[in-house]
Amino acid sequence: MDDAAVLKRRGYIMGINLGEGSYAKVKSAYSERLKFNVAVKIIDRRKAPTDFLEKFLPREIEILAMLNHRSIVKTYEIFETSDGKVYIIMELGVQGDLLEFIKTRGALHEDDARKKFHQLSSAVKYCHDLDVVHRDLKCENLLLDKDFNIKLSDFGFSKRCLRDDGGRIMLSKTFCGSAAYAAPEVLQGIPYQPKVYDIWSLGVILYIMVCGSMPYDDSNIKKMLRIQKEHRVNFPRSKHLTGECKDLIYRMLQPDVSRRLHIDEILSHCWVQQVKPKTQPSASTTKEGESSRGTQDTLKVPESNVEKKSATKVEEKEEPKQDANTEKEESVQVTRQSEILGFNADQPATESEQGKLSPPTETVHT
């Protein structure tokens, strides 16, 4: 029985193709019970790799079934057929994803970005409070409903955090996600704190929202890591961002994991709350237009061991020493995205007619 017939028997009239991969595809469908359109993710077990079937798919199904938040895509139904196909019926992002929205319309005004970022941060806090981490936060996974509200989607790399006997969250060693959104510790193959990884990705997303371009160029991972570990963040001067907005981004894109913001600190930040701070926390600007946080020490981190083999994926190198608080997992390919929106690293971004990307003229660093 083909997909259309299977869905028809369950009360869904299959529509257009929304996306397709090697072992999964997403279709639109009309639900006769719900009386509106939905998205249907169809996974073919016969074509899927073993690690996906044994680890990632069970996790995704378990987590989707437990999530219930207004800024997370709703899951209406999950069922499987005898021929090994899994059907996940989900809320449809009728306005597409945030990446396409920004590519079409350009950078968001800070007020619009604040609203959308607050919705996203609230969804991440909800997950983190449940000890669930997403690990693939990126603009493509942020869908927009009919009113352009954020709906967090694609929990394919998500997991429940494990805790040791002392109640501490164990470090993770599954290196997954997209390189442009991945934290330095993940790119280096260092066992990482999964919730802290999500925060870095939030910083990249907010930067893209307000700048309309990528903060780092991931075509050269080693070079990108050096810039990240120096805590350099380039802001296009033409965007006229407020100091509070730049401060929040800068604190999320913190290479020192012990100093990176937590989700509660993000939600209480003066920019998110739209409250003027009593004391200005944002970076001060010099005459040359280069900003620096003089109150912070320069962060010195050893050079990365990432080789120049490929700019398109990060592989786990020689396995780090395992300790009691580290969960052992294999590496997962990380994809390159620097050419999607352009970047603000060492060379100017290109310009498009609809969404202009400005060259980096203002730098924040430690």
Automatic annotation (TrEMBL):
- Please list the residue ranges annotated as the Protein kinase domain: 12-272
* One MF term in the entry's GO annotations: magnesium ion binding
Segments of this protein annotated with the region Disordered: 277-366
Where is the chain membrane-spanning? none
Main localization (coarse): cytoplasm
The entry marks the following residues as binding ATP, namely K41
The reaction(s) annotated as catalysed by this protein in its Swiss-Prot or TrEMBL entry are: L-seryl-[protein] + ATP = O-phospho-L-seryl-[protein] + ADP + H(+); L-threonyl-[protein] + ATP = O-phospho-L-threonyl-[protein] + ADP + H(+)
Enumerate the PROSITE patterns for this protein. PROTEIN_KINASE_ATP (PS00107), PROTEIN_KINASE_DOM (PS50011), PROTEIN_KINASE_ST (PS00108)
Keyword Cell wall biogenesis/degradation listed: no
Q: Which GO cellular component term is one of those annotated? A: motile cilium
* InterPro entries (UniProt xref): Kinase-like_dom_sf, Prot_kinase_dom, Protein_kinase_ATP_BS, Ser/Thr_kinase_AS
Pfam families on file: Pkinase
UniProt cross-references to SUPFAM superfamilies, sorted A to Z: Protein kinase-like (PK-like)
- Cofactor(s) for this protein? Mg(2+)
| Protein family per UniProt | Belongs to the protein kinase superfamily. CAMK Ser/Thr protein kinase family.
- Cross-referenced PANTHER family, in alphabetical order? MAP/MICROTUBULE AFFINITY-REGULATING KINASE (PTHR24346), TESTIS-SPECIFIC SERINE_THREONINE-PROTEIN KINASE 1 (PTHR24346:SF102)
Q: What is this protein called?
A: non-specific serine/threonine protein kinase
| Taxonomic source organism | Sarcophilus harrisii
